[in-house]
Design a protein that fits this description.
Elements lengths: L1 H18 L16 H4 L3 H12 L9 H8 L16 H5 L14 H17 L9 H26 L18 H18 L18 H18 L10 H14 L18 H4 L14 E5 L9 H5 L24 H5 L6 H6 E3 L18 E3 L6 E2 L2 E5 H4 L12 E5 H11 L5 H16 L10 H11 L6 H6 L3 H8 L1 E8 L2 E7 L13 H6 L11
Antiparallel strand pairs: 1-6, 2-3, 4-5, 7-8
């Protein structure tokens, strides 16, 4: 437990470093108090604006990470039995009564984030850098990497978005996806070329949370694979397959990133020795060589995901020890639980099995209760008082002050993307990378499988379960295959403690894309067109 407390403190120290006079790395820079002409004179001015760009990374309800888990075959919408059918819009592809369910991610967050990145890039040449061009280029590279991240999230979820390339631009019609992807890839290549080539071991821990060259290389591979898979293309705009492979190999050989020895040690529940009763398992901490890109949180700027996915309907305080209760969203499908092979440590590391673990949750106040909840992002109880939350133990004002970082990319993703891309040209290398991930999962070498497109796809499902990756992996298999994977027919669930069934009919017409917020359609006065099928 002490180790996690130390990591929470380090996050707060990082907050102080990155935000200068503010208390948090993710504190907002008041953009309304700055004007492009006149304010931006010194590197510190650029730094404060860069902090404002990072500030837009944390999400909440309706964040793409949350949506992707529910939209995949890993989770149902869940939630309280009497809640509005909001989450179900994302897994059943039905409007229900909330046409604005995606408003959280459009203009209010992502386009605002993109504008902040534009502001910084546009004003860098106004600043007196004192000849330090490396610092100038690093700030631009960070802003462009973040801009690429924000645009990629928007593009792959909504499919048809305006490509706004200036902080002063007015709303324009939706842009051809190829142009958006070309813009994203150009930003990522710039980031790769201009971020420092410093290994993980040589990077000060205080800088953990800033984007790196290695994260940009991995992210470019993620963009390439989604684009070529979803659109059925052989190459992506502005980058070749071989270039992407070279970037991944550079990351593997030179980044200093590596797998942690035990999969379970990646997640905070591994601190709870009385829970897992494995004296050889300990938490690796948030600052470890497997984490390549994450959103830093603290008790001052908490990770909201835990409150949504915590188990619902507690009878007595402490009943769910070591897990603290929450709102019961994103319940886990039995299909997901049963897909893991015997001996795969990732199932226990990722899924709470209420019956199997003796947790007295019967789902009486729960919609789409299955008896399973995700384990990677759960608020924990105080080890000395099971009625109290762990965030409160480390200084949080309530159980919702969750300091756990949100991981956006791990080194195992780089290995499996490299295995996938090198499959046709270097089978031996592809096999090696797949073995590295699978050997860690089973903690032996007896469960290896031959590297194929299908086995790598399957492995990604086990490795990244509940990490917001599976849904996009499914989409890039093609829409017909996606429908086979995502459709559900009369699956048993409990609704308010009563037997029910769950049905999902994935819409080929909607093509896996979200509904554009209706308010944005109206504001545009017809300039924006709704996605097909909605």
């Amino acid at each position: 437990m002490k180790r996690y407390f130390q990591k929470s403190v380090q996050c707060l120290l990082l907050c102080g470093l990155l935000s200068a006079c503010s208390n948090s790395f993710l504190d907002s820079v008041p953009m309304t108090q700055k004007t492009n002409a006149g304010y931006y004179q010194m590197p510190q001015d650029a730094w404060e604006t860069l902090v404002g760009c990072y500030n837009r990374l944390p999400g909440g309800y309706g964040d793409f990470f949350f949506i992707a888990n529910i939209a995949s075959d890993e989770c149902y919408g869940g939630g309280g039995y009497t809640d509005a059918f909001g989450n179900q819009v994302w897994d059943e592809w039905t409007d229900y009564n909330d046409l604005e369910i995606n408003r959280y991610t459009w203009s209010g967050r992502f386009y605002a984030a993109i504008r902040r990145c534009h502001v910084l890039v546009e004003t860098l040449d106004q600043i007196d850098w004192g000849g330090d061009t490396n610092l100038r280029n690093r700030y631009e590279a960070e802003a462009r990497m973040l801009r690429a991240h924000f645009y990629f999230e928007m593009q792959r979820n909504f499919g048809h978005i305006p490509l706004i390339t200036s902080s002063q631009a007015e709303l324009i019609p939706q842009t051809d996806p190829d142009e958006v992807y070309a813009y994203i890839i150009e930003d990522l290549k710039f980031a790769i070329e201009n971020l420092p080539s410093v290994s993980f071991q040589s990077t000060p821990e205080a800088e953990f949370g800033r984007v790196t060259k290695w994260a940009a290389e991995g992210y470019l591979a993620r963009v390439y694979l989604f684009y070529t898979g979803y659109y059925g293309k052989s190459e992506a705009p502005g980058v070749t397959k071989q270039e992407v492979i070279n970037y991944l190999e550079d990351c593997i050989q030179n980044s200093g990133h590596a797998l942690v020895p035990r999969y379970g040690s990646l997640w905070p529940w591994s601190m709870m020795e009385n829970y897992h009763k494995d004296p050889t398992l300990s938490y690796a901490g948030e600052y470890n060589p497997e984490i390549m890109f994450c959103i830093r949180h603290s008790t001052m700027r908490s990770n909201q995901y835990q409150r949504y996915t915590g188990m619902r309907g507690i009878a007595n305080a402490g009943d769910y020890e070591p897990f603290y209760p929450g709102w019961g969203m994103a319940t886990i499908t039995p299909k997901c639980f049963n897909s893991f092979a015997e001996g795969d440590t990732r199932r226990y590391a990722s899924i709470i099995d209420c019956e199997g673990e003796g947790i007295p949750n019967t789902g009486n106040d729960q919609r789409e209760f299955t008896g399973y909840f995700q384990k990677k992002y759960q608020t924990l109880t105080d080890p000395n008082d099971k009625t109290r939350s762990y965030p409160q133990t480390v200084g949080g004002s309530s159980w919702q002050s969750e300091p756990q970082d949100a991981i956006l990319m791990r080194y195992s993703d780089v290995l499996l993307m490299a295995a996938e891309l090198e499959l046709e040209t270097n089978q031996a290398k592809s096999q090696t990378y797949l073995n590295m991930v699978r050997d860690r999962a089973f903690e032996d070498t007896d469960h290896r499988v031959t590297a194929t497109a299908q086995s790598i796809f399957d492995e990604r499902g086990f490795e990244f379960v509940f990490e917001g990756i599976r849904y996009y992996d499914v989409l890039r298999q093609g829409l017909t295959k996606a429908k086979e994977i995502l459709d559900v027919t009369n699956a048993p669930v409990l609704n308010g403690g009563q037997p029910g069934v769950k049905n999902i009919n994935f819409s080929l017409e909607k093509a896996g894309l979200l509904r554009i917020p209706q308010s944005q359609i109206l504001i545009s006065e017809g300039m924006l067109v709704q996605n097909p099928g909605w």
